Amino acid sequence: MTIGMDKSIEELLLAKDRRSELRMQRLEKGCITLSFNLNIPGLPKSNESFHAFFKTCLSELQKYLLSHRIVTNKDTIHCETDTAGDFFLAEIIDSDYSAIQIKELCEIFEIEHPLGRLLDVDVVDEKGELVSSGKAKTCFFCNEAPAIYCMRTQAHDYAAMRTKIESEIFKYQASNKRQNICKQLAILATQSLLHEVALAPKPGLVDRFNEGSHTDMDFSTFLNSTAALSISFQKIADFGYCFSGDNLKEALPRLRLIGLEIEDDMFAETHGVNTHKGAIFLLGFSIFVSAYLLSKDSFTNDKFVSLIQDMNGDLVARELGKKLDLGKETHGEACYRRFGKMGQGIRGEIQAGMPCVFKKALPILHEQFDTEEILNDKILNKGLTCALLAIISNNDDSNILYRKGVEVLQKLKDKASSCLLEFKSEKFESTYNDLIAFCEEKRISPGGSADLMAVSYFMYRVNRRLVNHD
To answer: Are strands 71-72 and 33-38 parallel, antiparallel or unpaired?
Structure first.
């Protein structure tokens, strides 16, 4: 045995002795103590991967204990990483359980955990006695003999065991990461729709106080619709995160299928009213591409735009440029036939990589929000209003174009631009009210711009929460 190995073993024994001392120090209080560490064969007992796994499992254990009303005294927590690995120790307070019952519950936690054989939760009673169930854990490596037997007889190669352990931990952490990111993307997408409809006042659009230029929908219609969409957002995120193809165009049929299912859910909740069809289209792509890039730890706005363009390179020609039988032309197709490039609508926007989002709205949201610790209602209202005006002033909304023509659309864009110029001046309120009155007079609703604003806020929150870890 080398001198270096002797020293490592000596340090390991000293670390274990110190842990025993820490437990003994709590004896005089006459309370139950609980400790947690990992069963890692060989040295070192901790590294970056093991430490991250330890923190994950510790959080899971604490929630599990709390679910049984077993509370650890925060003032007595000792948590450190030493030669013996990662270690947690704390006193149990105000528990209706005995030490034996707590130990039994901890054993259930270990048994039910996917990697429970790597976890070691010890309970010491009020007298300082280690509570034991008398049951031997099965060896993690061979899954046959008791772990203590394999350890004492050195039945397995340490390097092989550590390789297997690291592989299983990696898979477990990767699965947790996927679930967390997909859940967060669904939450952020839902939030973006809720903040869009709650924004008030808005020109011609439904908000929390007004129906705008609409007679068939109101605030509650949008709330019901958003609730129906939220579940499917996570389905899209899962699909994007797990997509393994090299060509993202291969994902389009599946994305369309999910989109059609979401539309059915929307119409079921709104009794046939189209509240979010455009948002489903835009957010569907945005969630999918975000999840795909986040799964590879390679998210940037530039990469996002590039992938969106690659996926939809011929979208306008493919969906709007084809000839259909007379009488079956959609509004989008009619608009494109009559107005050309100006009539490309939402398809043209996404084919171009959503310039209204990334070149117009997103810079404004960063300017308005980045310095704020908490985005309260007042701050959100101001920033989202500014972003919406930037989008309206640049977006050729095909719905308005189809119903009212070029002149009305251009006047709407000009009025939005004027509001944007006066945003920080005393004239803003009157200028903005004039825009709202114009939309009311013409009975127009820039719904496409509202959808793009929701996507802009979604992309802002993805950058802050999942990329820059706000």
So the answer is: unpaired
**pLDDT digits 0-9 by tens, 241-292:** 999 988 999 999 999 999 999 999 999 999 999 999 999 999 999 999 999 9
Q: Are residues 80 and 199 in the same domain?
A: no
Instruction: Indicate whether 324 pLDDT > 50.
Output: no
Domain extent, residue 253, equals 174-467
Give the pTM.
0.90
Measured between alpha carbons, how far is 109 from 121 in angstroms, rounded to an integer? 9
CA–CA separation, 353 and 451 (whole Å): 15
Nearest to 235 by CA among 260, 210, 216: 260
Mind giving me the DSSP string for 393-445? TT---HHHHHHH-HHHHHHHHHHHHHHHHTTTSTTHHHHHHHHHHHHHHHT--
Count of domains forming the chain: 2
Say if 161 falls within a structural domain: no
Checking if the pLDDT of 102 tops 90, the result is: yes
Helix (H) / strand (E) containing 172: helix 158-198
| pLDDT of amino acid 327 | 52
Cα dihedral sign for 144, 148, 151, 154? negative
* Span 112-124, pLDDT tens digits: 999 999 999 999 9
Q: In whole angstroms, what is the distance from residue 33 CA to residue 128 CA?
A: 9
Single out the residue of 261, 360, 347 nearest to residue 308, CA to CA. 347
CATH number at residue 27: 3.30.70.260
The full DSSP string for 269-335 is: HHTT--SSHHHHHHHHHHHHHHHHHHHTT---HHHHHHHHHHHTTTHHHHHTSS---TT---HHHHH
